[in-house]
Known about the structure:
Layout: H1 3-69, H2 77-144
Helix pairs in contact: 1-2
Amino acid sequence: MNPFMIAGTVLNVMGQQRAAAAESRRQAAIAQQQEQNKKFEQLRALQEHNARVSAYFAYQSTTNAVRAINRRGASDRSLAAINKAAKSKSQEDLGRAATQSLFTQSRMQFAADDARAAGSLAMQTGFLKSASSIAMMGYQMQQVTPTGD
Length: 149
């Protein structure tokens, strides 16, 4: 048995396993960062939603004050139409923002899941490369080792 072939194979296997573990850790960190980004996006969306709702209520309050100053009744059709349009626009904006946020969160979750899968694949690939190195060393040793004929 050639000790250099054995040592080379052992070092090769160790290197492949360490590289696979490092890649797996790197992908886990990427996944964790994407999960954190998703949480930040959820928080941003909630803050934006609250700001939009607050702005709508401020608009409504101002409209009511203007209505009172101008001595218009609550049943005034032109003010009712303006309020209805503002409410519809506000609901549309809220829906659009929520949809965009959900889409962004979905992309971030996909990136996290993809990174986890890549880490798992790196570990599997490292194991297979190690097994291949061992098999190849066995084959090469068989080729160079004299038979007892």
